[in-house]
Predict the structure.
Amino acid sequence: MKITITAFERSPDGGMGLARDTRVRWALEEAGQPYAVRPVSFAAMKQPAHLALHPFGQIPTYEEGGLALFETGAIVFHIASRYPGLLPDDADARARAITWIFAALNTVEPPILELATAKFAEGDKPWSKERLPLIADRIRHRLGQLSAHLGDVEWLDGTFSAGDLMMASVLLRVRPSGILDEFPRLAAYVARAEARPAYQRAFADQLAFNTRSPTGG
Amino acid sequence: MKITITAFERSPDGGMGLARDTRVRWALEEAGQPYAVRPVSFAAMKQPAHLALHPFGQIPTYEEGGLALFETGAIVFHIASRYPGLLPDDADARARAITWIFAALNTVEPPILELATAKFAEGDKPWSKERLPLIADRIRHRLGQLSAHLGDVEWLDGTFSAGDLMMASVLLRVRPSGILDEFPRLAAYVARAEARPAYQRAFADQLAFNTRSPTGG
């Protein structure tokens, strides 16, 4: 069945790959599934047509036949459940891989998003400069724990899984701050993830999408 | 197989049910599965034995035979996948219910946790008083969208699911602030969830656990 996802009409990052549609594109590439991308403007995101697909007015969404999903974690999990390549067959290993999807989104990403909020939503506030180092230290605390757990293995639990896809995606968001490179094992882990052909295709496609000419093409 | 979860030796909330083991207890009650609870002190949470179970040194964890999981969302999802009662059988309805688990944890809970961080980790900072209303407004924005989506139906997508369990659990965290009651539909939704016998049992058990006498019992 034809898969259609939504993405920002123009990603605010200009194609750095940090918008969340990249995570879904990557999962679809790992699963070898073709898909179409429908751009949504910031104005359209707040309109009833889009809110019917995504109650919180965000991207990405996922449509496949009669099924409509939102929330990146849920979409990546759905792709990983439905198609081979992103979750192990063994039930216990599968549960552990799914655990890493949740850990990436619920334990590692929150302080990283707090840093973004502090910069963009509160960057003009008098406390901004003093708060940023506090948040950076919360990120370092989590990355230190993650690095200790990862040790010298290649992926979080055996073979590459949707858990690694999500964790690497979350870590990519903090790389521009310089904090990722303070943790060489994690920086190398992200580099291994980026080197995957499926990520390369997803990244190239989102870059082309976000830099396409306004008259189409 | 015997299920063992971990919980705070004494929950900082004194048994209000806001610690995350309550979410797991509730899921196990909905699924009709007996379980044991192992208390973990704050000191023990940072020790190698617990870090081997939970790389980020938190509770709850979940052990069942040879399987060890951490991260509340992953544990609730595992229980919902393994036992009947928390996810619909229809594949599309199931994917939508899972979407609400992720939406509760990744879209609705983050500003609620930010409020907690602002109060407890930054409560002594000079900006605390001015920041709290900003965060409260971020929570209101999300709850307004959720309330609009819920409308006058009983549960988020058809019958009660693990998605409702997680969403109600997240909303319970914000009730002490008074913000939940600004959204009568959501307050009624939470009250419906709390009225479920499985929630009542889970709440009573965590209360008894957190108020037990220090000499055992």
In short: The mean pLDDT of chain B is 95. Residues 209 and 216 of chain B are 10 Å apart (CA to CA). The domain at 3-85+199-210 of chain B is CATH 3.40.30.10 (Glutaredoxin). The radius of gyration of chain B is 17 Å.
